[in-house]
Structure formats: C-alpha cells, structure tokens
Inverse folding.
C-alpha cells in the first residue's frame, strides 16, 4: 500500500474540472479505494472464519463470500477501463479536519466557478472525494501533533506496533494508525 | 471510527449501531433476518465485519448519477479556472 494524503490544493482541481492529469490521478485513487475495499473484505472474511471456527461460536447471516466477490467485481469493472500496468496500491487517506477544510474551500471557490453550484452541489462534490478515500482516519486533536523541527531524530516515519502499521512521530506520539 | 480501515474490523452490535446511527435493536433485527454476515459468540454477543455491514446496505442511492451531476455542471471548467478561483 502507498498511502496518499489528501491535499486540498490538488483535490479541488481534480474534482471540479473533469479533465486533465489531476482528474486522471483522481480516477487512479478511485481504483486504489476499490482495491482497498476488496482487500479489506477478504481480510474480514478470513477474520470471520477464524472466529467461526472457535468452538461454541456460530456463523450466520448473509454469505460473506458473496460480498467478497461483489467487492472484487466492483474493482474489476474499473480496472478493465484503466491502462495496462496501472497501479492499484495508491490509496487516499483523509481525516475529518482535512475534509472540513476541503468543504470550506469548496464553499469559497465554488460559487465563483459556477453560481448555480449551491449547497447540494457542494455536498455532491464532497461525497465524490469521500468515495475515493481508502481510509478516513478517526478524528484527532491537531494540537497533539508534534511541531516539525530540524532534528532528524524526531522525524515521523512508518513503524509497526505489534502487527498493526502505525504512523509515529517523535517522542513515540501516535499521529494516525489503521488498527 | 474510520469508515474504512486498513485492518479488518469485526464490530460489536453497539459499534455497528453507532457507525450507522441506528439503534442496537435495529442491528439485532438485521442479524435475525440474515441481512448481514455475523458470528455469534458463546455469551450471545455478535461480531459483524465492517465491510460486510456496509456492503449489505441498499437503497435508492444512485452513485453513478450522483457523480455525473457535478461533472456535467463543471464540464467546461479547466484546471486554470479552478486554480484562479481557489487562489493558488
């Protein structure tokens, strides 16, 4: 997986003007989101089977394999439209504060571009970006993010905590994690 | 809670209800009706896969049409128009 962090300066042109390289990148992120959804469906199906195999546990309800197949079919439908060798591992990561900033910019710039955009149009545009997000991390307090310094020892980096990939900053402070 | 996480999540009925903003009783009704995949634990609690829960939802929501609407509205815009409007 290659996480891509939502940057409103790039995403706004990609969403608002349906052409150009930025738009193509947007579609690439949609492919990554579908691949992430497919992979996660498979992982959860495996986790469900592990639970179901425990004595006295009992599985039921809708067939999980059908849902996994449906997730793969959605990915395949878009994948077939993409150029050969197109990467599927670019996955957009967003957070509630970034999505709120995106919506604010949309409200400011949208009416200049199209006076008829309106509240509904802005909601649609925000939903477009949420759809291509592979992950929306839990809300967090921006004040907890350590300040950037020139000290390389406190540079943020990807780490593992147990079996979970965790994004750590200096002083062991967790910024975001997908566990 | 993340809508989609990079790690598998098996939700309790309370977590599933909170995610969808419905009552726990509603989730239990869906389980009893076989609408969502689940595992029943010996104590009577349930675990529901997050993607299985979301993919089991249905409605009149038409994603393709919804995406097409803003695209058609903005079809004449160029990247330059957008960048000028957002001041970057």
């Amino acid at each position: 997986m290659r996480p891509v962090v939502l940057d409103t300066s790039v995403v706004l042109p990609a969403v608002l003007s349906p052409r150009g390289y930025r738009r193509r990148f947007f579609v690439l992120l949609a492919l990554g989101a579908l691949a992430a959804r497919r992979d996660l469906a498979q992982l959860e199906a495996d986790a469900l089977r592990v639970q179901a195999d425990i004595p006295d546990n009992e599985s039921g309800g809708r067939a999980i394999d059908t849902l996994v197949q449906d997730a793969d079919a959605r990915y395949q439908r878009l994948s077939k439209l993409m150029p050969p060798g197109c990467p599927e591992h670019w996955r957009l990561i967003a957070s509630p504060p970034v999505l709120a900033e995106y919506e604010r910019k949309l409200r400011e710039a949208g009416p200049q571009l199209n006076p008829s955009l309106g509240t509904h149009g802005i909601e649609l545009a925000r939903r477009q970006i949420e759809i291509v997000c592979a992950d929306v991390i839990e809300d967090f307090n921006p004040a907890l993010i350590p300040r950037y310094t020139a000290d390389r020892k406190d540079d943020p980096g990807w780490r593992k905590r147990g079996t979970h990939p965790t994004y750590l900053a200096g002083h062991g402070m967790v910024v975001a994690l997908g566990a | 809670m993340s809508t989609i996480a990079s790690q598998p999540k098996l939700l309790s009925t309370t977590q599933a209800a909170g995610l969808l903003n419905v009552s726990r009783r509603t989730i239990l009704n869906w389980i009893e009706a076989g609408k969502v995949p689940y595992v029943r634990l010996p104590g009577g609690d349930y675990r529901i896969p997050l993607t299985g829960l979301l993919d089991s939802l249905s409605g009149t929501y038409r994603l393709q049409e919804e995406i097409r609407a803003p695209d058609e509205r903005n079809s004449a815009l160029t990247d330059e128009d957008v960048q000028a409007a957002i001041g970057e």
Summary: The first strand of chain A starts at residue 2 and ends at 5. Chain A touches chain B through 63 residues (CB under 8 Å). Chain A has five helices and seven strands. The longest helix of chain A spans residues 20-53.
